[in-house]
Design a protein that fits this description.
Helix content is about 45%, strand content about 20%. The chain has 24 helices and 21 strands. The strands form four sheets. Strands 1, 2, 3, 4, 5 and 6 form a six-stranded mixed beta sheet that branches. It has a five-stranded mixed beta sheet with strand order 8-7-11-9-10. α2 runs antiparallel to α3 and α7 packs across α8.
Length: about 650
C-alpha cells in the first residue's frame, strides 16, 4: 500500500528514489523502480505484440509484487472509468486490461480478478453486446448462483446415498466467457449449452476411478435428461495433454442447460496444475513464464498469512535468458540474452542482417557487436556493399542469425567455386588436356582440401595458379615405367579345355531334390569336401557357396529365406576349379618348380597361372582343377616347400 500511495508523487517528480530509500527503505524503493520501468513502455502497448509485451513487463519488474500491484491498479482503474468522457482512451485501457492484465491474473490463479477484468473490458469495448447478454440472462449473479445451489443440493444427496466421497464446485459463466462461446460456436444465447457448470470431484483410489465416475454420471442421468450430442468421454481416452474428465450436459430445472464434469482428485490435480492446467485448457498460448507463474500461484493459494512477505524473496528471473527491444515503429521483438545488434538485424529480416553495418540504439550509433538491453529502441543501418563474414559467427548468439550467416557464406562459396571451375576448365581446354574427374578429386584432396568447392574458390581468388596446378597434376599422374628384367613377369598359362558343366555331384535340400539346376559360385569356387550351402537366385537356379565365402554372412543375414542346404553326393572324381594365391621371392625357375609340383600330382590339373613380379618379389594366382578338398590341402603343403615360396593360400 505504501508503494501504491507513493508512486503518483514519484511519477510527478515530487520525490525521487533516493529519498524513498532513506525514508521508507530499499524494499519500497525497489517496488517503485519496477513500477516506473513498466510505465515507461506502457504507452507503446497498443502497437506491439501482446505476448512479447507481457514478457517485457515481466523482465523489467524485478519483484512479483510489482506485477500484482499493476494488476490491482488496472482493476481499480477499470472500475472507475465507466462514465469517462474520452471513449477512445477508455477503449485503449480496456484493450490493455483484457490482453495484458487479465492474462497475467489468469496465470497467477487470480480467476475472479481475471473474469472481472474481461467482463469490464467487454462492457467498455462492446457495450451493446454486453448489455444484451446481461439482459438475456434475465437474472442477477446472485440469482444464478442460487440456481446452481438448487441444482447441486438434490444431486449431492443422491451421490451421498450411493456411498460416494466427493466435493462439488458450482460456477456461473462470466458475461465475457458467454460472449466468447457465442462467437466460437456461432450461435445466439439460447444455443449455449453450458451457461451453468458443475464439477464433481471424487475421492477414490486409482483402480476405482473410472467405475465411480460412470456411477456418478448414471445417477445424474437418472435425475435429468442428458444431451448425448454433448457427451465428452476423456476418461476412456484422455486428451493428448493428459486431461481426463467425463463431461455431460443435462436439462436442469426451468429447462436450462447445465454442464456437469466428473473427475477424481488425481485428474483434477493434473487438469489444474499439470500438463492440462486450466489456462492452457482454455487455449492461452504457453510461454516461458509457465513454471514460475505456477510457483507464485501455489504461494497465493497455500500461504495462510502474509503471502506478499513470502514473495519478497522470490527473484523475477524467468526472463533472465531473454531481452526485449523495439523497432523505431514500436514493434517489439524477443531475443536471447546477450543478443547483439547483428542478432536483431537478422531477426527483422535475413537481407537486413546480411547488409547490416551497425545501428542507432536509443539515439546513439553502435557497432554490430553492441549488446541489446531490455527496452532498447534499435534502428538498423545497412549498406549494399556489406556482406556476411566468417567472424560474424562469433558475434551472434541466436540460432536464426547463425544459420542465416552460414547459409550466406555457403552461397558465396558456391558462387566463387563456380567462377574458379570455369577458369580451370578454360585452361584445360586451351592446353587440350584430358582430365579424369576421379583422379582430379584425389589430387585435390592430396593437396590439402577437404571440399572441392574450397579448392575452386581459392582458384577464383587467385590463391591457386591454374597453369602451375595443371603442370603439377600432369607430373603427379604420369604413368610409372615398369622394370624391364623380371623372370616371372607376365607369365601366363591357360588351360583351353576348362569344363563349365560340373555335373551332378550335390544333394540339394533336406530331401535331396533331384533335377534342380545349380552352379558353383565364382566368388569362392567350392570343391568337393568343402562345407557348402545353396542360395536360390532370382532365376530359380541354385548357386553353391562355401560357408566361409566372403559373401556368406551378407547372404544369410539378408536373404535367410533363400538359403537351402547342400551336401556332396560322393562323386569325388569330378574336377572342380580352386584358386590359390602365392607370394614369394623372385628366383629364376620358381615358376617351373611350382608347375612341376602340380604336374606330378594325380587328380590335379593346372588350368591357369598368372605371375607378376616387382622389386624382387612375385605374386601368382593359380587356378587348379581338383577332385576334392583333401587333394587340394596336400597340393598346398607341397607347393609351400618350393624354394622362394613364402605364403600360399586359397582365395
Amino acid at each position: 500500500m505504501t508503494a501504491i500511495g507513493l508512486y503518483p508523487f514519484l511519477k510527478e517528480a515530487l520525490i525521487d528514489i533516493e529519498t524513498v530509500k532513506k525514508e521508507w527503505g530499499d524494499d519500497i524503493a525497489g517496488l517503485l523502480s519496477g513500477l516506473e520501468a513498466v510505465d515507461r513502455f506502457s504507452n507503446k502497448n497498443n502497437v506491439v505484440n501482446q505476448e512479447n509485451f507481457r514478457g517485457l513487463l515481466l523482465a523489467l519488474a524485478d519483484d512479483i509484487r510489482v506485477i500484482i500491484i499493476m494488476i490491482v491498479r488496472n482493476l481499480s482503474l477499470m472500475r472507475m472509468i465507466n462514465n469517462h468522457p474520452d471513449e477512445a482512451w477508455v477503449k485503449d485501457v480496456a484493450f490493455e486490461a483484457n490482453f495484458l492484465y487479465a492474462q497475467l491474473a489468469h496465470r497467477l490463479g487470480l480467476y475472479k480478478i481475471k473474469s472481472e477484468l474481461e467482463d469490464l473490458s467487454l462492457k467498455y469495448t462492446h457495450r451493446e453486446i454486453y448489455n444484451q447478454i446481461a439482459r438475456k440472462l434475465n437474472a442477477t449473479k446472485k440469482e444464478r448462483d442460487a440456481y446452481i445451489k438448487g441444482f447441486i443440493d438434490p444431486l449431492k444427496d443422491k451421490l451421498e446415498k450411493a456411498g460416494l466421497s466427493f466435493d462439488i464446485k458450482g460456477r456461473t459463466k462470466s458475461i465475457s466467457s458467454i460472449w466468447a462461446k457465442m462467437k466460437k460456436q456461432k450461435v445466439d444465447l439460447p444455443g449455449i449449452y453450458d451457461l451453468f457448470a458443475i464439477r464433481v470431484i471424487l475421492d477414490t483410489p486409482l483402480e476405482k476411478e473410472k467405475s465411480e465416475c460412470w456411477l456418478a454420471y448414471s445417477i445424474l442421468a437418472d435425475m435429468y435428461t442428458a444431451n448425448p450430442a454433448r457427451m465428452r468421454d476423456w476418461i476412456t481416452i484422455p486428451k493428448s495433454n493428459g486431461y481426463e474428465s467425463l463431461h455431460a450436459t443435462v436439462m436442469g430445472p426451468e429447462s436450462k442447460w447445465v454442464e456437469v464434469q466428473f473427475r477424481t482428485k488425481r485428474m483434477d490435480l493434473v487438469a489444474e496444475k499439470g500438463l492440462a492446467a486450466h489456462w492452457r485448457y482454455k487455449g492461452v498460448k504457453s510461454d516461458s513464464t509457465d513454471q514460475w507463474m505456477n510457483n507464485i500461484r501455489d504461494i497465493l493459494e497455500s500461504a495462510e498469512a502474509g503471502p506478499m512477505q513470502l514473495m519478497k524473496d522470490i527473484k523475477k528471473d524467468v526472463y533472465g535468458n531473454e531481452v526485449f527491444a523495439f523497432t523505431p515503429k514500436g514493434d517489439l521483438f524477443r531475443l536471447p540474452a546477450g543478443a547483439t545488434v547483428l542478432d536483431f538485424a537478422f531477426l527483422i529480416h535475413s537481407n537486413v542482417g546480411s547488409h547490416c553495418t551497425g545501428a542507432v540504439v536509443n539515439g546513439q550509433h553502435r557497432k554490430i557487436t553492441h549488446r541489446i538491453a531490455n527496452g532498447d529502441t534499435v534502428e538498423i543501418l545497412t549498406s549494399s556493399a556489406q556482406s556476411p563474414k566468417n567472424d560474424w559467427l562469433n558475434i551472434v548468439v541466436s540460432s536464426k542469425a547463425r544459420n542465416k550467416i552460414k547459409q550466406s557464406l555457403n552461397e558465396e562459396l558456391i558462387r566463387k567455386a563456380d567462377l574458379g571451375k570455369e577458369l580451370f576448365n578454360r585452361r584445360v581446354k586451351n592446353k587440350k588436356i584430358e582430365i579424369d574427374e576421379a583422379t582430379l578429386m584425389k589430387y585435390v584432396t592430396k593437396s590439402g582440401y577437404k571440399h572441392v568447392n574450397d579448392f575452386f574458390a581459392d582458384m577464383a581468388d587467385g590463391k591457386i595458379d591454374p597453369n602451375k596446378f595443371l603442370a603439377s597434376y600432369l607430373e603427379e599422374t604420369k604413368p610409372k615405367t615398369e622394370p624391364t628384367r623380371v623372370s616371372a613377369d607376365n607369365f601366363q598359362y591357360q588351360d583351353k579345355n576348362i569344363q563349365e558343366d560340373e555335373g551332378e555331384i550335390l544333394r540339394i535340400g533336406e530331401k535331396n531334390i533331384s533335377g534342380l539346376s545349380y552352379k558353383f559360385a565364382k566368388c569362392c569356387n567350392p570343391i568337393y569336401g568343402d562345407d557348402v550351402f545353396g542360395f536360390i537366385s532370382s532365376d530359380g537356379s541354385v548357386k553353391i557357396h562355401r560357408n566361409n565365402c566372403p559373401n556368406a554372412l551378407h547372404i544369410k543375414a539378408r536373404y535367410p529365406y533363400r538359403v537351402i542346404n547342400a551336401t556332396w553326393s560322393g562323386n569325388s572324381g569330378d574336377m572342380l576349379p580352386a584358386t590359390l594365391k602365392i607370394t614369394g621371392k623372385d628366383d629364376i625357375g620358381i615358376v617351373a618348380n611350382i608347375t612341376s609340383v602340380i604336374s606330378k600330382e594325380t587328380g590335379v590339373n593346372l588350368r591357369n597361372i598368372t605371375v607378376d613380379s616387382n622389386d624382387g618379389t612375385f605374386q601368382g594366382i593359380l587356378v587348379v582343377a581338383v577332385s576334392d578338398s583333401k587333394k587340394l590341402t596336400g597340393l598346398i603343403k607341397k607347393i609351400s616347400t618350393v624354394k622362394g615360396v613364402k605364403e600360399i593360400q586359397r582365395v
